[in-house]
Amino acid sequence: MKTDAYEKVKTARSNFRPTSVDYIHHIFDVFLELHGDRKFADDGAVVAGIAMLADKPVTVVAIEKGHSIKERMARSFGAPQPEGYRKALRLMKQAEKFKRPVICFIDTSGAYCGIGAEERGQGAAIAENLMEMMTLKTPVISIFVGEGGSGGALALAVADRVWMLENAVYSVISPEGCASILWKDSGRADEAAEVLKLTAQDSLNNGFIEKVISEENIDEEPFYKMIKEDLINELKVLGSKPLDELLEERYRKFRKVGQK
Amino acid sequence: MAFLNFRLQPKNELEKGGRTSALIQSDESEPEKKCPNCHRETPLSELAGNLNVCTCGYHFRMNSRQRISAMTDKGSFKEMFDDVTFSDPIGFPGYEGKIESAKNLSKEKEGVICGTATIGGEECCIFAMEPYFMMGSMGTAVGEKITALFEYATEHKMSVVGFTVSGGARMQEGLFSLLQMAKTSGAVKRHSDAGLFYLTILTDPTTGGVTASFAMEGDIILAEPSATVGFAGARVIEQTTKKPLPKGFQTSEFMMKHGFVDAIVNRQKQRTVIRHLLKVHNRREDA
């Protein structure tokens, strides 16, 4: 059985798709990458820094998978270590201090799964981001450009606006993982993808995100220009709100999920 | 001795790492429980009298009601939000059936119970997650109850004491479950920003999305001895990295060694320690 949802999963994972860094280079005028979490290491899976959006400075945080095999390995295929999340939080707090908006690009199969990641508190790092982002005193926009794998993606998605590319996916578990738990057969991932409701359209219908971005002309100038204009316009809207109203709306947006 | 070595041979890599776990079912057909640590058989009634702790110190799992009644002053627990029950937001195949069997097994309506209580006279909001209800997995009901408890605690300026047990986010509710991590974290943050005290006690097992949200957000984080505490599943890590896991990987002791747990407290001592910590932090009001 071939399903639309699983086709989207495959598209989201495709090597030929633009990755977060491509968006950064096309949308922003100047981007200065800043490294390290100031605690332990610099995680290659998270690219972050200060960029100019038109004439305004913004902080950009992105989970990057990389293109070439060598680069993908250096970036752990876009699976952040705890240091990646801590770097993200460090720069988000910096953005708060200097009153810069934060723009996140998300493309990950999930947080890094390994012995070192556990030793250095993967769970605690994600938890801290969720808490701190909820009250970060500056507008935050997160865009899912490819895969949005579970807690590892959510750790950058507690935002005022969450947008998804048309073929991006956002899920509590990978369809393969779900199928192997449910049917003891990871080969039935296509069916699992369907039941998990992981497409951008599903997320929009369920009220988890505000916008689905069309992939027409993907990776061409008009495509990036459209996203750039959307970002500029939306930041104007968010920036004009009083801070307590912005934070209350952010809280309510997540508070209402599953509320009866 | 060779015989003994053979007998104590671990069954798998996880056990070799010093990790074992056993559930206690209040099943009358099985009057005795074998300890996975010392292999001694103890009558269930005797175990219950000892807070489900074997004479060797092994902590068996404990259901949420037992735990709350063992930790709080008699008759002080007032349950809240028990009308929040499960929903099937994405119509997941077989989910309703799973919920029914979880209800039968646990005699609870959902994976956590919440309320207010006193512990040695100290008032607090309290929650205990339920290992027999789909291993305390977090769906919308669990997320909603915990969020509502924190909001209540913030409004009434109360400390929160929470016992965590969880396999993580509940897959059957899709993204609705995942987003409970953000929702609960938001409520914990507001409680924290109001200068209020939150104590977590990690019990076996605390993993996945609960570790990556409210379990790790306590001002003080305690853990029961040898409880499994981690984010990614140990088997998944083993399969992904193809490396043997270090001894004691993802146990309370491991988490304390790496700086993520404040102290490991035996179940027998928990009540005293919790009361002390509540007393220290509840004083803030009079100061």
For this entry, give a set of tags.
heterodimer; A: 260 residues; alpha/beta; 2-enoyl-CoA Hydratase, Chain A, domain 1; eight-stranded mixed sheet; 12 helices; 8 strands; B: 287 residues; seven-stranded mixed sheet; two-stranded antiparallel sheet; 37% helix
Characterization of the model:
The complex is a heterodimer of chains A (260) and B (287). Chain A has a domain at 17-171 and 210-231: 2-enoyl-CoA Hydratase, Chain A, domain 1. Helix content of chain A is 45%, strand content 18%. Chain A contains twelve helices and eight strands. Chain A has helices at residues 4-13, 20-27, 69-74, 82-97, 115-119, 122-134, 150-154, 175-183, 189-196, 200-205, 221-239, 243-255; strands at 31-33, 46-53, 56-63, 102-108, 140-149, 161-165, 169-171, 211-213. In chain A, strands 1, 2, 3, 4, 5, 6, 7 and 8 form an eight-stranded mixed beta sheet that branches. In chain A, helix 1 packs across helix 9 (189-196), helix 4 packs parallel to helix 6 (122-134) and helix 8 (175-183) packs across helix 9. The radius of gyration of chain A is 17 Å and the shape is globular. Chain B has one domain (62-285): 2-enoyl-CoA Hydratase, Chain A, domain 1 (Alpha-Beta Complex). Chain B has eleven helices and nine strands. Chain B has helices at 2-7, 13-16, 44-49, 64-71, 95-106, 140-155, 174-193, 208-211, 234-241, 252-257, 267-282, and strands at 32-34, 41-43, 78-80, 112-119, 122-129, 160-166, 198-206, 220-223, 263-264. The longest helix of chain B has 20 residues, at 174-193. At the A-B interface, helix 5, helix 6, helix 7, helix 8 and helix 12 of A face helix 6, helix 7, helix 8 and helix 9 of B.
What does the secondary structure layout of this molecule look like, with pairings?
The complex is a heterodimer of chains A (260) and B (287).
Chain A: H1 4-13, H2 20-27, E1 31-33, E2 46-53, E3 56-63, H3 69-74, H4 82-97, E4 102-108, H5 115-119, H6 122-134, E5 140-149, H7 150-154, E6 161-165, E7 169-171, H8 175-183, H9 189-196, H10 200-205, E8 211-213, H11 221-239, H12 243-255
Helix pairs in contact in A: 1-9, 4-6, 8-9
Chain B: H1 2-7, H2 13-16, E1 32-34, E2 41-43, H3 44-49, H4 64-71, E3 78-80, H5 95-106, E4 112-119, E5 122-129, H6 140-155, E6 160-166, H7 174-193, E7 198-206, H8 208-211, E8 220-223, H9 234-241, H10 252-257, E9 263-264, H11 267-282
Parallel strand pairs in B: 5-6, 6-7, 7-8, 8-9
Antiparallel strand pairs in B: 1-2, 3-4, 4-5
Helix pairs in contact in B: 6-7
